[in-house]
Protein: Ribonucleoside-diphosphate reductase
Organism: Liquorilactobacillus satsumensis DSM 16230 = JCM 12392
Amino acid sequence: MTLKDIDSNKVTYYDLNNEINLPVNGQIPLNKDKEALAAFLAENVKPNLKTFPSLKERFNYLIENDYLEREFIEKFDFHFIEKLYKFLEDAHFKFKTFMAAYKFYAQYALRTNDNDFYLESFIDRVAANALFFADGDEKLALALADEIIHQRYQPATPSFLNAGRKRRGELVSCFLIQVTDDMNSIGRGINSALQLSRIGGGVGISLSNLRGAGAPIKNIQGAASGVVPVMKLLEDSFSYSNQLGQRQGAGVAYLNIFHPDVVAFLSAKKENADEKIRVKTLSLGLVVPDKFYELARQNEEMYLFDPWGVEREYGVPFSYVDITAEYDKLVANPRIPKKKIRARELEAEISKLQQESGYPYILNIDTANQENPISGKIIMSNLCTEILQVQQPSIVNNTQGFDKLGTDISCNLGSTNIVNLMASPDFGASVAAMVRALTYVTDHSDIDVVPSIQKGNKLGHTIGLGAMGLHAFLAKNKIHYGSKEAIDFTNIYFMLLNYWTLKASNQIAVERQTTFAGFEKSKYADGTYFNKYTTQTFQPQSDKVKQLFAGIFIPTQRDWADLKAAVQKDGLYHQNRLAVAPNGSISYINDTTASLHPIINRIEERQERKIGKIYYPAPYLSNETLPYYTSAYDTDMRKVIDTYAAAQQHVDQGMSLTLFMRSTIPAGLYDWKAGHTDKMTTRDLSILRNYAHAKGIKSLYYVRTFTDDQNEVGANECESCVI
């Protein structure tokens, strides 16, 4: 029998898994999932996992048949590889759920060319990752093997999936590029979108610099068409460039909310929009300066400024002008074309569209830049809103070459598993190993088809370490999501991630005698970044959280002062270090909850292609933890915002914060609903967006709505970040 011969009607694991959804005497029969897991391994994996007489013969076969690269293997003595495998086998790894094993073998395990057999187990994939990212360093290979096999660290899907493979895609997750206000840049941007979508991963594109519809065009009798036609071109590009049909190309367009095309930009996503302007698959993101919140709060009119006029006056592209600081001057300047709308009407339109589609994402650009320790300006985010890095615009000439090569962004991601990292024998050493793995990705990423991304990566050495499993950890330890204890824990956990990634980055800078470009102009170099840590005490406040961190080193103000001195002396290798992605499906393999948000269901139902529904019980679900697993749809979103805000103060980039709403709001969930309709309204979303802004949240991802007819509006498309 081979994988092709498996008859879904004859195997038992699907039916066993589905029985989880059938209560027995009022209890969830979790044992059925264990039975489904055992059946899957016995009926699917064991008979179809290709075996070899020896480890040496296995590697020879995989190399000779172009399944694995020869180079990374030959950097190690084979006796060490055998030692590494012995270490991994002694860890006695076992999947905990049917979903975890199914996801791994369906999406990650290497298969034969004819798709008949699996060529690797979870241990084999871990070994490939450890050896590949260690790059010949035996000590690091063992450390990475330790972190990944104990699931303290999970590389992002492109890295975990492709590490060591001979025929593979890129190791990075997603990309960010910008276009400026000329046809050459637009053409180059569309080409870049095609190339990056072909490589894999979601692509974010800033359109804020483009002149609005109706604006004059130099030396041509006519007017500009605005951003919507460019959005249509981009959507078609992503649809066409889809890795030979293996995945849907995914992109997001960002536009400043003070752009004159903002209403048309939002309208293009409406279901009833004319097909000539409607974008179905392109995601939308709004760049929102503080000034908009002020104007909406005061119920004033807001002026929209045409980018070509602003650039003519300020000498820089529209994205690089501080709208909040310059707003009054922009309004008063007669040379800048402008029009006005009511801020609250636009705010209502945003909420309406979020109800209908989940879009737009919201990037609070002033908050992002105020907290940015790097010299330069953040102007946009990515498809999952967690990447926030400075960029520089390019100048493209008539031959599509560069008169001035700017910098754009590629994302190198990985996640800590909170439950397992908290059980690490050495929290700091674990994080240091993770930083080394991510550093390999940034060092070896060379996206030459988009030179601005290649340059940005080479100068910044950026990485993005995040986290998953917060709700699982809280429930396991009988802490309610969003409680004071939960916020206390989140605060300390992310403070530790910040501290240890800084330590690791500083150590790499010492070893290599180099820093990221522009370090000397950063708040790290002048020391001001560290002020909040040297003037405040970050220690657990509650007895429960103190117990959770017992035995784990927590830096004092003195420790932070010492780190500040070390960084000022020798620098940091990485321009950016932390980012929290949504990491959905990859969390199943880790048997934990996704990212930092609450679960959706205690027993999650997933529709898998070809086979139907699979049920996934929440991690550590039992009669004791049941009360601590409240659905995100029944959770006050202010608790989610407070949780992310506790983490955000320590995260130099952003976080994918999804808002979960019901069409019919549960009674008593939001105090402002008392005496009003229980239906979700545009006012509800406006209140939550303003609350997030006031709490220092840099970005908001989807708004997901559970409707009265049991459907969900707003679904994630960025598989590179999500899985």
The longest strand covers residues 251-256. The radius of gyration is 25 Å. The mean pLDDT is 94.
